[in-house]
Design a protein that fits this description.
It is a single chain. 27% of the residues lie in helices and 17% in strands. By secondary structure, it is of the alpha/beta class. The chain has a domain of 87 residues: Ribosomal protein L13 (Ribosomal Protein L13p, Chain: A), CATH 3.90.1180.10. The protein has a four-stranded parallel β-sheet with strand order 5-2-1-6, covered by helices on one side. Strands 3-4 form a two-stranded antiparallel sheet. Strand 3 and strand 4 form a beta hairpin. The longest helix has 13 residues. The relative contact order is 0.23.
């Protein structure tokens, strides 16, 4: 008699959700965003299921001190359209880092998550703050070292 191998699919409620703290100071934007996306998606866990939310929450502090390499600080642009003719609005990386630095990390991570309802649910697990302080002390986040310098 053969033994059957059974694949276990975990439910979102059964996954153990942790809170992690990431310091973005002097980190490269793309490498930081890809590591954060892995943790939010749950790909760093053995129980990863592609169609289920098994990931953890991530708090990013010091978003205003994130780096980009080469001339990207001068050349990178962010665009959105109002929906009206001639309604394309474009801002440079330097403009956004001074006014709304949280947007830079949020948009980089959002681009690395699925473009589905699951992705919309997962992006809510990312909390980004420009400075050192954050209101999630009660969740007791663990420090997450993404890369060694």
């Amino acid at each position: 008699m053969k033994q059957e191998k059974i694949t276990k699919f975990i439910k979102s409620e059964d996954a153990d959700k942790k809170w992690y703290l990431v310091d973005a100071k002097d980190q490269v934007l793309g490498r930081l965003a890809s590591e954060i996306a892995k943790v939010i998606r749950g790909k760093n866990k053995a129980i990863f299921t592609p169609n289920t939310d098994t990931g953890d929450f991530v708090i990013v502090i010091n978003a205003d001190q994130v780096k980009v390499t080469g001339k990207r600080g001068l050349l990178k642009t962010y665009s959105h359209h109002s929906g009206y003719p001639g309604g394309l609005k474009t801002k440079s990386f330097e403009e956004i880092i001074t006014k709304k630095p949280e947007f830079i990390i949020e948009s980089a991570v959002r681009g690395m998550l699925p473009k589905t309802r699951l992705g919309n649910k997962l992006i809510k697990k990312l909390k980004v703050y420009a400075g050192q302080n954050h209101p999630h002390v009660a969740q007791r986040p663990e420090q997450l070292n993404l890369m060694e310098k």
